[in-house]
Amino acid sequence: MDGSKVGSFENGSTSEGRPPNPAAYWRCYGRADGVPAAPCKKTLVRHTSLMRTKASDVIVELGVEEEKYESKFIPIVRSGAWTDIGSRSNMEDVYVCVDNFMHDYGLKNFTDGPSAFYGVFDGHGGKHAADFACSNLPKFIFEDEDFPGDIQKVVSSAFLQTDTAFQEACTLDATLASGTTALTALLVGRLLVVANAGDCRAVLCRRGKAIAMSSDHKPICSKEIKRVEACGGSVYDGYLNGQLNVTRALGDWHMEGMKSRDGGPLSAEPEVKTVKLTEEDEFLIIGCDGIWDVFRSQNAVDFARRRLQEHNDPATCSKDLVDEALKRKSSDNLAVVVVCFQHEPPPNLIAPRSRVQRSFSAEGLRELQSFLDDLKT
């Protein structure tokens, strides 16, 4: 599968078409063939799990420290994506690239800077949940009456509402039963908002350094183990309830003991991280776990940076990452999106000479540090 449909929702569709929604849902959010519906009265209701939550209580973590000065930097967005089925028999990864969501969704202009949206969705047990989330999660964000005034809460609510809407679709058609991890990146002006539920990953390149913008929700993560056990679940042999190798995902309502209307060990609520971009921020990589099975975060940033210095094309860079992952024997489906924030390619960095002779290269040391950082999470 190639990445020729970059910049649209078409890459997220199956040959059978997108899964059906409840009739009332399609009436408000669009037609099943993907053509946007005429504007309608907003009837979105905040997800019940967030209605009693104060804004200060929503999980929001900073990916980097707040800058000590007010930057006048305005990102210039360029993006590209690529996918490959890998060694699997079915393709269950999908992505979405929207470089100007105000134009694409007919929203009133509320910022002088960029308005962009990107996402990757890694399906399991079928592709229906991934297709559903790819097509509908952005609409829950942009058609929320609180957007963009309360972005973090709106995005969190959109994940949960997408999960609930998919459950309703599955009650109408049991063949849709499946699950998907989801990671979205929303850029409004200088503000980058990354939301993640699962083991997709987002990495920001800041002057050559990899900045983690998401955490992998794996059953081996101590933080996730505590949450799972508090919800009545367990981790057995590295799997959630002995069945799933992720602790957060959309869908999977058909799996006994995972989810209920009152909660459950498998959560669809994302962790949200925000950062204000500066002149030092060069590009963002978001990808499904097939990429990160063979790339560490700093290694991927170093690789992508070299390629962008050669051709300065995010689409070609995405293909380069996928091709390299295949060479490194990734056994999973592959999907990656690269978003550049500058017109120019990343500059060459001149490292100061060290008086101490080293046996490791600078890139090797960064990869070792990235490995040690991963062990802490």
Total helix count? 10
N-to-C span: 33 Å
Q: Could you name the CATH class? A: Alpha Beta
Q: What is the approximate shape?
A: globular
Our estimate of the beta-strand percent is 15-25%
How many domains would you count in the coordinates?
A: 1
**CATH-assigned fold name:** Phosphatase 2c, domain 1
Fraction of residues in H or I helices: 25-40%
CATH architecture classification name: 4-Layer Sandwich
How would you classify the helix and strand content by structural class? alpha+beta
| Gyration radius, rounded | 20 Å
CATH homologous superfamily - what is it?
Answer: PPM-type phosphatase domain
Largest sheet: 7 strands, mixed
Helix-strand string: HHEEEHEHHEEEEHEEEEEHHHEH
Mean pLDDT across all amino acids: 84
Can you walk through the features of this model?
The chain has 377 residues and is α+β, with helices and mostly antiparallel strands. The chain has one domain (10-376): PPM-type phosphatase domain (Phosphatase 2c, domain 1). It is 29% helix and 21% strand. The chain is built from 10 helices and 14 strands. The chain has helices at 23-29, 48-51, 101-104, 128-142, 151-172, 222-230, 289-292, 297-311, 314-327, 362-376, and strands at 60-62, 78-84, 93-98, 115-124, 179-188, 191-197, 201-206, 209-212, 235-236, 239-240, 250-251, 271-276, 281-287, 334-340. Strands 1, 3, 4, 5, 6, 11 and 12 form a 7-stranded mixed sheet that branches. It is globular and about 60 Å long. The chain starts with 22 loop residues before the first helix and ends with a helix. 47% of the residues are buried. The model is unreliable at 1-46 and 48-67 (pLDDT under 50). Belongs to the PP2C family. It comes from Rosa chinensis (China rose). This is protein-serine/threonine phosphatase.
